[in-house]
Design brief:
By secondary structure, the protein is α+β, with helices and mostly antiparallel strands. The chain has helices at residues 25-36, 50-59, 75-88, and strands at 19-20, 23-24, 66-69, 94-97.
Length: 99
């Protein structure tokens, strides 16, 4: 698998990677947008590895209708993500991915 540079390596986007109180400012902006859009009861951002997030969701019996994974480009991790999140989806759930 060829490694492709990520969009966040672009110098113009570097300011979004600043850290305040242990969180990326980009994450804060994302969370703020979720609240402003009125979908905080529908969107659950989980700032952790996809493996840990899948385990927590499974332990709590969460069966999402939609999952968006923007994860690692590593083939083994991608395969785990597909298995982990396919198992979590509701009967009519949809799994989306980026990259």
């Amino acid at each position: 698998m060829a490694w492709e540079p990520e969009h966040w390596t672009h110098p113009a986007l570097r300011p979004l990677l600043a850290v305040e109180d242990g969180l990326l400012t980009l994450y804060r902006r994302f969370a703020s947008n979720i609240v402003a859009a009125g979908v905080a009861d529908l969107v659950v951002p989980m700032s952790m590895t996809s493996d840990v997030a899948a385990r927590i969701l499974a332990e709590h019996g969460v069966t999402p209708d939609v999952v968006l994974l923007d994860g690692s480009h590593d083939a083994d991790q991608l395969a785990r993500d597909l298995r982990n999140y396919d198992a979590l989806l509701s009967g009519t759930g949809v799994l989306f991915g980026d990259d």
